[in-house]
Structure formats: structure tokens, C-alpha cells
Amino acid sequence: MFDSLPYRNDAAIVFRRLIRSLPTRRAVIGVATCDKGLPATMIALASMHDLPVILVPGGATLPPTFGEDAGKVQTIGARYANNELSLKEASELGCRACASPGGGCQFLGTAGTSQVVAEALGLALPHSALAPSGQDVWLEIARQSARAVMALDEKGITARDILTDKAIENAMVVHAAFGGSTNLLLHIPAIAHAARCRLPDVAQWSAINRKVPRLVSVLPNGPDYHPTVRAFLAGGVPEVMLHLRRLGLLHEDVMTVTGQTLGENLDWWEHAERRAKFRQCLRDQDGVDPDDVILSPEGAKAKGMTSTVAFPVGNIAPEGSVIKATAIDPSVVDDDGVYRHTGEARVFVSEEAAIKAIKQGQIQQGDIMVIIGGGPSGTGMEETYQLTSALKHISWGKTVSLITDARFSGVSTGACLGHVAPEALAGGPIGKLRSGGCD
């Protein structure tokens, strides 16, 4: 994904121009689903300071009854090249991955996380993120959103009333509790900038991820790999927020698109018929306990669920880096809870070359793969998902770690350190690494 982050910025500019081009506009409804279009829509809505705004999340596509989710299925090429799939198996899996049209992928990648963050910001209605796209419940959310934005117009509640410093912090807290995509470390500050809020820094991200427990067990982090639609059925964002509220981690006085505060929304949700109905639906249709998808802090601790994001600093990354700690395979973590890896470096200047090396058998168990020149100055900070997904779903991939000044997909897993700073093209130490060295 070479220029996807610049595309987000371009899309946000176009959306703002479209809104400004409507001289009789009274309010704005955004409908968006995926990795760049949804953050771009949120940036555009955040910049409409004096207009009522609301976002309708595009929801999630349903998983196949038999087959693989839309994340794992993207590795059929690497697995076929490594003789782990036949051509017939690969082709059949590719045709079965999506069981319904529309919606984001069935895992908590950047698309799903962005929907969660939109709701956590107060930009979307309660219990709207991750709904099954195109189904009756999703269509009703769209109708309710239209009514809600009209009510905001009548009450004179605008984007600046909803998107505040406290709302931004709530979004960061919910992001940590869900175990969301590291790409939101880029998108949330962009939304804050558009809303003229204080920009979150590394210290704030780090502090939040140290104190907020991860409570959601879904793809790709687990420990139980539920599709994201089950998180919706288990209660979604407001269910997670009930746990966070009891821990005193939320600003409940923030305004939301319901025209009520977050605290008032949660008071409603705790006793809502909707909550009981959908949680029972999950039990009846899938035989899954909602409390095994969205866990209590005590339940999450008992399952060994750790905080989401860490920010390692060292000789290769003197200004820091980002790793999704939840995504490291527990079997390669030492007994003291620390991941350690010494191996031979394999350095590449593009994701394409790195994937080619995997398919041609040039990467061995225990290697440390390094991609340099992928930071903002080089390629607009490209996304290296194909590489990380290949490593996850090749049988020995968990023994390989990855270091890069690029970034990852929200569904990327493994010992992957990204956002390394300074980047190689800015003279960072990562640019001095060469194949054959040990780290």
C-alpha cells in the first residue's frame, strides 16, 4: 500500500470541498467504512466546526461458514509458494472469504478500529460500530442517524461541541481497550488537528496504554479469534465503555451526537432492551457467551490479555518506535513476559523485495527482517501488511521479527516494530543496517 496515507489526506480535502460546495447545507452525514475513507471522513467532519455532523459506520462484512477471514485469506499466495496450500485450496479460500456484500473486514483492523473510534469520539450513535453491514439493523442505524443529526440542528449542537480534548482522550482509551490498529496513532491526531484540539503525544499514548486493560477478544489479536460482528452482538463500544466507566477511565461529561452526554448514553445502555436482545442473539445463534468476547477487567487478566501498544526506544530507534504488543505470539515470549530475539538481519528497501524473498525461500527461521526507506519522506509511510500477514500464516513465521520505518496494517501481527524514528532517509540509524548483521 504505497500512497494510502497521502490518499487519506487527499480524500479529506475533497470531502471538505464537497461540503463547502453546498450553500444551503444545515448538517452533514458521513457514511464510511474502511481504512482510509473512514479516517478521511472523520477529518472532514471534524473540520466542520460550526455544523451539526454525524457519522454512519459502514459496519462489518459477515464471516464465511466454512473458510478463512479476509485477513488470513490474503496470505494464500505466500502459503501456496511455501507448499502449505494446493492451488485448488487457495482458489476456493479466496472465493469464500466474504459472506456478505459491503462492510469492513471481519477483523479489528484499521477499518473496524476506525468505526470504534468514531463512536468513542461521540461522532456516531451508540452501538453503531461493527454492525453487520447491509442487514436490517445497519439500515435502522442509518435512519436513526439522519433523525439524530436533524435534532442536533434544532438544538444548535455542532462538531465543536462534540470533538473536544476530552473526547479525543476517550477515543484513545477505547482504542486501547479494544486492542485497536496502530494506524489510529496517525489518524486520531489528524482528527484532533482538524477539530482544533490538543494533539496527543507519545507520552499520552504510552500512559493510556499502561493503565487501560485490553478487554476485547477478536481477530486478529485473540486470545479467542471471534469475528468483529460478535463484538457488536456482545454490546460493542458501549459495553466496553461500561467496564471503563467502572474503572474511572472515561470523561462522561462530553457531548455526543445523541444530544446527550456520554454518561447519559451509558445510563441508558446499561438497562437497554437493545443490549439484552443482541447479547442473547449471540448466545442463541453462535453459542457464544458475550462475556467471552467483551471481557471484564478481571476476566481479561485471567486470560493473560496485555495492554495494546508499546513504544520501544533504543539504538536503532532513538526517537522511538511502535509495536502492537498484543500481537506477538505468546509462545515466543519468555517466562518473564519479555520478548527477546537475536538473529541475522535481512535488509530490504521495499516490501515487494521482502515478500519475494519469503516466497523464494531466502528467509529462514529466526531471521530479523528490516525494511528501510518506507517512512514519510520516502513513500508517504507505506503500509506493509502483505509482509506481516505472510509471516503470521506461514508455519514458522512467528520466529521472524520485523523492523521498519514504515507502518503496518491494523491486522498485522507478530513481533513487528514500525514507525522507527528517525526514519532511514532522515539519517536514522535504521538506515545503517545491512544484511548479515545481528541485533
Radius of gyration computed on alpha carbons: 21 Å
Q: Structural class per helix/strand content? A: alpha/beta
Q: Which band does the percent of strand residues land in?
A: 5-15%
Helix content: 40-55%
Q: Mind summarizing the main beta sheet?
A: 6 strands, mixed
Rounded average pLDDT: 92
Number of strands: 8
The total of helices stands at 18
Element-level helix/strand string: HEHEHHHHHHHHHHHHHEEEHEHHEE
Terminal CA distance:
28 Å
- Overall shape: it is globular
Explain how this protein is built:
The protein has helices spanning 4-20, 37-46, 76-81, 87-96, 110-121, 136-155, 159-162, 165-178, 184-194, 202-211, 228-233, 236-246, 262-270, 273-286, 297-302, 351-359, 376-379, 385-393, and strands spanning 28-32, 53-57, 309-310, 322-324, 345-348, 368-371, 401-404, 416-418. Helices cover 41% and strands 7% of the residues. Helix 1 crosses helix 2, helix 8 (165-178) packs across helix 12 (236-246) and helix 12 packs across helix 13. Strands 3-4-8-7-6-5 form a six-stranded mixed beta sheet. It has a two-stranded parallel sheet with strand order 1-2. The protein has 439 residues and is an alpha/beta fold. 51% of the residues are buried.
